[in-house]
Amino acid sequence: MAEAALKEKPAEAAEERELTDGFHLIIDALKLNGLTTIYGVPGIPITDFGRMAQASGIRVLSFRHEQNAGYAASIAGFLTKKPGICLTVSAPGFLNGLTALAHATTNCFPMILISGSSEREIVDLQQGDYEEMDQLAIAKPLCKAAYRILHAADIGIGIARAIRAAVSGRPGGVYLDLPAKLFGQVMDAEAGRKSLVKVIDPAPAQIPSQESVKRALDVLKGAKRPLIILGKGAAYAQADDAIRAFVEKSGAPFLPMSMAKGLLPDTHPQCAGAARSTVLAQSDVVMLIGARLNWLLSHGKGKAWGTERKKFIQIDIEPKEMDSNVEIVAPVVGDIGSCVAALLKAAAPLKAGDEDPFPLKVADWIKTVTSKRDENVAKMAPRLMNNNVPMDYHGALGVLKNIVKERPDAILVNEGANTLDLARGIIDVYQPRKRIDVGTWGIMGIGMGYAIAAAIETGKPVLAVEGDSAFGFSGMEVETICRYKLPVCVVIFNNDGIYRGTDVNTVSDDPAPTVFVKGSRYDKMMEAFGGVGVNATSPDELKRAVNAAMDSGLPTLINAVIDPAAGSESGRIGNLNPQSALKKKK
């Protein structure tokens, strides 16, 4: 009898032992690292995971398409400096999210795409499982890092690696592959708790060398016509006070790239945004802070940069970025905050009586830039005040320019062709990270995902200014905006087509490839889901509608009727659109 009792005790102990599983370990690992928001689309095999995550206190935002959820996660990473989490189903859902993951990597936004997947033994033998796909192999070329977790005991370390990879160095997208069987794996709860990892200092400061800082200052001090270009990397760094102090101390004009607008107000006396052509062509020394010499800056060469050879100073956390297009005479490698702080410190006089290099002695240059800026602003002003019906882009954007000025705390989301290009130059931004747009790839489709994440992550009202073509990529997410009752006002510049709505097909009854349904009423979409829809046909109607939406905080969509003939081919980048050689001959 005694022996029988002894034999039963281990079994009883096993029954009483606390257990956990893959579902709970993933949730606990995310929460341990402060990742408490998930953007995604439910389905096999992650539906129950989403329910459990929500029950545990994680906010789970369910979208209508994985690509939009991915864009939301990517911009959440930009706004918070923590990896945004996107959760998708396997194969098609994974592929939908992959576009956003590649976008995040290209733009240096920290993001983790977590996708359920088929079991390895079936995938590797290609036996035809439900949504079978080797997702890890497909993701690897398109993101910063990719990992697969096969065992519950490795969940803690796997998520820790994904977090560190996403935010360290130059941030980017990370793929995390979770086969379906992982979620249901059971293990001892205490062992599970011990296996979790809280990531310590995931993005450590990278201090620039003193030599590089001195070299950069020496080059800058020798400038007669200096220019500072601020990129979205500078905005991401959240070193706002140091950047502003350095720019103001230098006395040099600065040019903000679109997502860096607001680091210093666009109305700042040193801002050269309205004199872009002048400062690019005539500057002799250019300092890049978190900006890359890619296509957005004509690769640092060509007609836009004038005939005089420039000296470039570049501040970037990635050494390989240096000399990517032109020679960088003064590379400063390190994180933006540390680099700018080091420049400020090195530029300060060591003792009373020492020469202070700042502000730079560039009075004539500042006068030239200011004169051109004021001239361009004055030339543009009448166009922004027109009251044309139907509206043109300038009249409509003039209204939004004034609304943003009155509401500098609101977040502006912007995409399209003409709608994007013109808004970049017309709408002033006054605070950091208040303008978010298509970024480095110049893609369409980010609008509603960005708007949702901006509202969720910041709690601020959002104004999303969309071209009618751009809106089509993510328009169904207005239901998501209504479902979560988010303070998002969407303004669609509706000119009946891509670029313009006047193209004609001369050979059949089909509409031209760039033409949409005439007189579309996008506002009715928002009404269908319980939001507010407004059809605005004049600048005055647009002003009243946007102000009402921003005051109420209710989900609102305004169909801003724009002249179909307004707009130009591909906005300001029509030169990238190949032309027919036969057409040229004619």
Structure description:
The structure is a single chain. This protein is α/β, with parallel strands linked by helices. It has 3 domains: 18-195, Thiamin diphosphate (ThDP)-binding fold, Pyr/PP domains (Rossmann fold, 3-Layer(aba) Sandwich), CATH 3.40.50; 210-349 and 356-370, TPP-binding domain (Rossmann fold); 385-561, Rossmann fold (3-Layer(aba) Sandwich). It is built from 24 helices and 19 strands. The strands form 4 sheets. A 6-stranded parallel β-sheet has the order 3-2-4-5-7-6, with helices on both faces. A 6-stranded parallel β-sheet has the order 15-14-16-17-19-18, with helices on both faces. Helix 4 (66-80) packs across helix 19, helix 11 packs across helix 15 and helix 17 crosses helix 18 (418-426). The longest helix is centred in the middle third of the chain and has 22 residues, at 363-384.
